[in-house]
Amino acid sequence: xxxxxxxxxxxxxxxxxxxxxxxxxxxxxxxxxxxxxxxxxxxxxxxxxxxxxxxxxxxxxxxxxxxxxxxxxxxxxxxxxxxxxxxxxxxxxxxxxxxxxxxxxxxxxxxxxxxxxxxxxxxxxxxxxxxxxxxxxxxxxxxxxxxxxxxxxxxxxxxxxxxxxxxxxxxxxxxxxxxxxxxxxxxxxxxxxxxxxxxxxxxxxxxxxxxxxxxxxxxxxxxxxxxxxxxxxxxxxxxxxxxxxxxxxxxxxxxxxxxxxxxxxxxxxxxxxxxxxxxxxxxxxxxxxxxxxxxxxxxxxxxxxxxxxxxxxxxxxxxxxxxxxxxxxxxxxxxxxxxxxxxxxxxxxxxxxxxxxxxxxxxxxxxxxxxxxxxxxxxxxxxxxxxxxxxxxxxxxxxxxxxxxxxxxxxxxxxxxxxxxxxxxxxxxxxxxxxxxxxxxxxxxxxxxxxxxxxxxxxxxxxxxxxxxxxxxxxxxxxxxxxxxxxxxxxxxxxxxxxxxxxxxxxxxxxxxxxxxxxxxxxxxxxxxxxxxxxxxxxxxxxxxxxxxxxxxxxxxxxxxxxxxxxxxxxxxxxxxxxxxxxxxxxxxxxxxxxxxxxxxxxxxxxxxxxxx
Length: 613
Description:
By secondary structure, the protein is an alpha+beta fold. It contains 14 helices and 31 strands. The longest helix is centred in the last third of the chain and has 21 residues, at 591-611. The chain is globular.
């Protein structure tokens, strides 16, 4: 089992293994456009610029030698302790050494709470707490995933690294004299009690590079902290696991791409589901799979602006491929997501390192249910739907009537032959059920309502006769199989009205056969890929929520307590966890893991209130 935040707060930081740290050691910072991974040892090992899905300037998490990083740490042995400043996405790391203590504050600063400025800026402030700590820093940018040559020059005495139309500056105050080398900028200095040093890294893409004054940087950092606190203070949640829910919501906010309203699945690409294996995917896209959870989280926790922006991004993106839906879309709403491999070694030798995602071309019928559920949630909150959106939703329902009998690749994007996945059929049922409800409330055209209702019944008959294990009387992974799939729990969570005892038996079977302690495997059976994977965290939260929704509140609460303890020291989750070691696996921070936590917490709290009368 992984170490919990309560016991993982402070530890001696040892040398990296092969240049890499455990994925559990990463925190994330962001500004609504870009996001960076900061390791416990003070190294920024991932940062795509100018946007979250742009080529990395720092990519050491995927290639320790060629990826580039921004290192800032004591030059002597140290222990580190870190936290997010309360109510913010600003990271604070305290380094404790025999010579004294220093504190580093890391942020991608916000330039204006309303208008998005073109410039990005990473700030790293170093405060002396006690004694005199020798600090060292090194900036090694590798533009375009390291494919472009980096030049370091001086402009007005300030080191600037450039490659084509991209440039970043290193503005250092009280942080030692920068030393410029061919492709890096380095420095060292000694902290003093009460002293404050600052290294600011403004970045420009196809625009002038602005060199800020220190007073401007200091004011910007204070405004950034204040803006995050104001946003967090406006959120609404008073139930159990409050700290975990708020941190998950703040993490979700970091995954929001502010220019469009899209929500990225994660900030990284190709972090492995099995170290040394091939299950390495680019998650810097927005998945329809996550849409209903995303909108529900925004609406439940008092984020109406984010809910509106996300819904309208979803309507824009899906219009480009209407009436068919893609599995995922780019953050700008585009549909082109060509998958390529980079010449990097991958995290701890896990290759290939991919950019783009070929899953966009798969047929996944569950997406129609998720989109229709999202539209239903939005319509309930807004009370109406735009006429063009209403027409398109009705056309989607018509398409589901025509395609639900087709095999597909399923929610897990298997790369084996398409099958009749049970969860896909359940979500087709959900799509037509929500379309029928929308029509009955005169929110979408009613012309084909009878057709939708008839197809909904046909789907239910298929599920109840073809997707059931006679031996266990539970729902199985696909028609005619005996394999299990935790994704079937989503049918229950989205309101598939099937056989109630059968659904309870499914929840029991998932708990008995796919669960190991707090960990739940996605499914049993093959998927067309070699090698194992870790336990998928969202599945564990789905199980906890399913238990709560079927009256098993004590079991749900106990599982939830365990799962909250599996976060890293700053409350983040990756996609998966290795049950044997507690190591994080897969991309991070994983939006679906945090969304599933929020959904489970809200459901368990609601069940508790209902049980209490």
